Amino acid sequence: MTDSAKPEVSGLSFEKAVAELESIVARLERGDVALDESIEIYERGEALKKHCEMLLSAAENRIEKIRLDRAGKPQSVEPLDGA
């Protein structure tokens, strides 16, 4: 897939970004990629990593921790980080 045919990183779902990142890591680990292409796909990998981190952070911010009372029934919710 050429650069112009690759979807913009910001438009990828978490799962698609991770899959592409895993593919890049595998190619780089094999070591059969020309230097120029290695640099190019490494840079894309960095962008994918940052995108995944941003998506994970956004998901964590949406998760709420349910507080239970002594009887084990939901009492309230609060942000995951306790803030």
Q: What this model shows, in words?
A:
The protein has one domain (10-79). The protein contains 2 helices and 2 strands; from the N terminus they run ααββ. It has helices spanning 14-30, 35-62, and strands at 64-68, 74-79. A hairpin with a 5-residue loop joins strand 1 (64-68) and strand 2. Helix 1 packs antiparallel against helix 2. The longest helix has 28 residues, at 35-62. 8% of the residues are buried.
Short description:
This protein has 83 residues and is α+β, with helices and mostly antiparallel strands.
Q: How many strand segments?
A: 2
Distance between the termini: 44 Å
Instruction: Output the radius of gyration.
Output: 19 Å
Largest sheet: spatial strand order:
1-2
Describe the global form.
elongated
The mean pLDDT is 85
Secondary-structure element series? HHEE
The percent of residues in helical segments reads 40-55%
Number of helices: 2
What count of structural domains? 1
Give a short account of the largest sheet. Answer: 2 strands, antiparallel
Strand content: 5-15%
* Secondary-structure class: alpha+beta
Uncertain stretches: none
Topology summary:
Blueprint: H1 14-30, H2 35-62, E1 64-68, E2 74-79
Antiparallel strand pairs: 1-2
